[in-house]
Amino acid sequence: MPFPQTWTEELVAEWLDLRGYLVKVNLPVVTPEEGGRRAPDIVGARINQDTLEIIHVEVGQLSESKDKNIKRIINKFSEDVCNRVKEYFKQLLNFTSDNVEYYKIYVAKYPKNLAEYREEVSKLNIEVKSLKDFIYEDVLPTIRQWKEHPPHLPKTKGIALPESHWMLYLTDFIFENFIENR
């Protein structure tokens, strides 16, 4: 299994895993129309009742011109890439229905003028978030929910995240000890 290339990709992969998704990192996707290969940063999938839920997350910086950045975001979530990801998980999970919900999220590590990007790519159902917003709106609530309703009964006092989820563990520790209790 490939490893995430950055700590932010690791954080996203752990977040999806904690939510019960099967997670693939840098999933190779062939795109014959354009030649070459694309590899989505992180993709998670799970079957929820009769629906295949897919969350596709790309992590990056918006360091070039607005037009180049928008083009890059759109290319990362191209129809061809998304269709290939859907087919990959349908085959892997032996899912035969066409009932698929596909969520696209771009997490910007060093954002500026995100409102401009959100407006442009929201037409393609791509959600653009700053890393800070992703942590506050997605990661921390998932950690809280998991700790309130762990999948097992703890043998010790207190509920701790799995140590294998070291980025979530660190995020939780920093939040609880340095931010929340100020």
What can you tell me about this protein's structure?
The protein is α/β, with parallel strands linked by helices. The protein has a single domain (7-179), classed as Restriction Endonuclease. It contains 6 helices and 7 strands; from the N terminus they run H-E-E-E-E-E-H-H-E-H-E-H-H. The strands form 2 sheets. A 5-stranded mixed β-sheet has the order 1-4-5-6-7, sandwiched between helices. The mean pLDDT is 90.
Keywords:
single chain; 182 residues; alpha/beta; Restriction Endonuclease; five-stranded mixed β-sheet; two-stranded antiparallel sheet; 6 helices; 42% helix; 21% strand
> Shape from CA axes?
globular
Radius of gyration: 17 Å
Q: Name the average pLDDT.
A: 90
Number of strands: 7
Beta-strand residue fraction: 15-25%
Give the structural class.
alpha/beta
The helix tally amounts to 6
Query: How many structural units, i.e. domains?
Result: 1
CATH class: Alpha Beta
Which architecture per CATH? 3-Layer(aba) Sandwich
Q: What is the string of SSEs from the N terminus onward?
A: HEEEEEHHEHEHH
Distance between the termini: 40 Å
Strand order of the biggest β-sheet:
1-4-5-6-7
Main beta-sheet strand count, sense and barrel state? 5 strands, mixed
CATH topology: Restriction Endonuclease
Which regions are unreliable across 5 or more consecutive residues at pLDDT < 50?
none
Q: How much helix, percentage-wise, in residues?
A: 40-55%
